[in-house]
Amino acid sequence: MKTDLLLAEKKHLGNLLEAIQRCVYFLDAASRKLPWLLNGPLLRQHKKDETLFESLSAFNERFSKLQDTLAAAMRHAQILLGEPGDSFLKVLAYYEKHAVIDSIDSWQLLRAARNLAAHDYEIDYTEIADHFNSLYELLEVLYRTSQAFVLHCDEQLGIKPGSMDFNPDFFEITSRIF
Predict the structure, then answer these.
(1) Of 22-36, 77-91, 137-151, 160-174, minimum mean pLDDT range
(2) Model-level pTM?
(3) Is the bond leading into 151 cis (omega within 30 degrees of zero)?
(4) pLDDT > 80? residue 117
(5) Exposed/middle/buried for 121, CB within 10 Å: 0-12, 13-18, 19+?
């Protein structure tokens, strides 16, 4: 019974790792559809461009989804690692110590950006452009953290993504130098 439970927990983490890889893949796809860097006049000029604003929406959602999924997977892996995880700050301290995240501050910046992505309803086009440009600038940190976490789970727990369907693309995307 305990073995079945442990296997189920490991499988769940593998599924979360696959979800991270899938999120990176689709976030990258959404990012490539946008004309970086954005500016207010461009957005104002194309304010009725459904394709552009659907791409912006997809980018916003996928950034948030990746950050959320990564946080859930980090917490879950913490349990399997047998490390204290009673607060997320302890989880972050562990991952900072093991160079999965750059720093607790960098993670909190990602989280703040994610919260703005999920809850900001700005109508000023310059502010909208600034918001998306900020998310775009944080992609490198988010991708680097995603890759480091997937590798950490493999090295420390022997757990790989549930399927390898996204694996080659994931490592190609997360290894890019921005």
Answers:
(1) 77-91
(2) 0.94
(3) no
(4) no
(5) exposed
